[in-house]
Amino acid sequence: MPAERFIAALNDQIGREFAASQQYLAAAVYYEDETLPRLAQLFYDQAVEERGHALMMAKYLLDLGIRPRVPGVGEPRGDFADFVEPIAIALEQEQKVTDQISELAAIAREERDFVSDQFVQWFLKEQVEEIDLMSTLLTTAERARERPLDIEEFIVREGIGGDQESDSSAPVPAGG
Ligand SMILES: [Fe+2]
Ligand SMILES: [Fe+2]
Q1: Which of 7, 25, 161, 173 could form a disulfide linkage to 47, CB 3.0–4.6 angstroms apart?
Q2: Cα-to-centroid distance, 15 and ligand 1 (Å)
Q3: Is 16 inside any structural domain?
Q4: Which residue range is the domain that position 143 belongs to?
């Protein structure tokens, strides 16, 4: 059984994953409204992924007979200075999440809970990919600040965010 402080920290992280999902969704509808469909789709997809992370964490607790808390989340940022800002916010958010998940791993190790430690490793690997994605996007967006259509073309040309291949090592989410 995981230590109480690990369970509490994981519950907090479930809330942050849902909050991240809402922030991605707020950016997605902004992009769709601005007629930037590729950025919109990428952010819609990220919103679904973050919700998935929350449900994977919920499932981990459920499998241990612990009922996860379903959190309320604050309203995300929905107004942006330009098309670059949501990407900058997303990158900052992903960097924060990486620290938070590292903290989860640290708690698991301190408690000598190597099962939970192993569980969070998948999320750390996922963070490396998401930071890489948002860094690439931010660099490209900053370079094309006056020409948002360039980044739309870049996303298509490089196949960014497209075909999320199924990852058989991914934890199972609650709800299947
Ligand atoms: Fe996440
Ligand atoms: Fe993420």
Answers
A1: 25
A2: 11
A3: yes
A4: 4-70+78-158
CATH number of the domain encompassing residue 62:
1.20.1260.10
The torsion of the CA quartet 29, 15, 75, 97, rounded to 10 degrees, works out to -70
- How distant, in Å, are the alpha carbons of 32, 38, 41, 66, 69 from that of 99? 31, 29, 27, 25, 22
Total count of domains within the chain: 1
CA of 131 to the centre of ligand 2 (A): 8
Nearest ligand (C-alpha, residue 24): 2
CA of 151 relative to ligand 1 center, distance in Å: 24
With respect to residue 18, please indicate whether it lies within any of the assigned structural domains.
yes
Q: How far apart are CA 60 and CA 128, in angstroms?
A: 22
E-assigned strands of 37-132?
A: none
Calculate how far, in angstroms, residue 123's C-alpha sits from the geometric centre of ligand 1: 7
Indicate the residue type of 176: G
CA of 146 to the centre of ligand 1 (A): 30
**In-domain check, residue 171:** no
136 part of a folded domain? yes
- Model confidence, pTM: 0.95
Taking the centre of ligand 1 as the mean of its atom positions, its distance from the CA of residue 171, in whole angstroms, is 12
